[in-house]
Amino acid sequence: MPASAEPVVRLKLWGVRGSTPVPGPGTLRYGGNTTCAEVRAEGEIIVLDAGTGIRELGAALEKEFGANPIKISVLLTHLHWDHIQGFPFFVPAYNDKNEIHIYGYDGGLREILKGQMAAPFFPVALYDLPGRIEIKKLHKMDFDIGRVHIRAHYMNHPGVCVGYRLETNSGTIAFLPDDEPYDSFKLHSSRSDLLSPEQIRVRSKVERAELVHFLSHADILILDAQYTDEEYQSHIGWGHGSTSGCVALALDAEVKKLVLSHHDPNHDDAMLDEMIQKAQSLAAKSSTKLEVVGAREGDEFFLSGH
Predict the structure, then answer these.
(1) CA-to-CA distance for 208 and 166, rounded, in angstroms?
(2) Domain covering 9-303, topology
(3) Quick one: residue 155, left, alpha or beta (phi over 0 = left, psi -120 to 50 = alpha)?
(4) Using one digit for the tens of pLDDT, what is the confidence trace for 35-51?
(5) DSSP calls for 259-295
(6) pTM score above 0.85
């Protein structure tokens, strides 16, 4: 960790894959676990999504804290299985010394988390876990976890799905693991099927402008880049992003670092290398200093306010 007199924000990636975990020789460099990130900021431990990557995070936390209690806040973007499937294996939930707060916007939050651990799917029920677990459905799009200010924004993705913006004294992290670009004029918002084609085009432009404003000048943006541009053409409406769409959004929002994530299970390390190099080339053609990297399990990023 860099030496600094100021508080330092640490972001660590524990799962960067979308749809389903894909361990194996072809995914060793980028990783095969589904979405999970950890943010240490202002004395808080904030976990973003609970894909299979949360299992290793839990083991690391127990080793770090030992007999000391752990207080954790888990922010769920949505309840698709690749974003919650790791929670039953989150070791801190099995220790009564620990306090875990789980937040999300889906009205079925409590029942869905309970359901994935119900018999016959899992041998331990959610409410039999010894950890002190609070599950809370959020209503406000602005709230605080300690001194970290959180903003949420609805994403263009099937179901109830949000992205988060974490604002700290040292910088800002935006986390959007599932989001489809508005450029194809495919909307996933409720009642969009009742809109005319012209209304959809107008609404799409408005939604994109609002998203750009939400992301404006973020220090780090973790963004859904599941498809190549060519693949996206046959996946319009699936709720995921593409290489050039991610770069265009990051450039318009004037973010500093773009982290391409939610890697497709069919993309091995070599394929991801190609996609990231293309994104970097696109960014280099602009007049900005946008840095583009690919999300890898174990990667850490630091914000020190400088």
Answers:
(1) 20
(2) Metallo-beta-lactamase; Chain A (3.60.15)
(3) beta
(4) 999 999 999 999 999 99
(5) EEESB-TT--HHHHHHHHHHHHHHHHTSSS--EEEE-
(6) yes
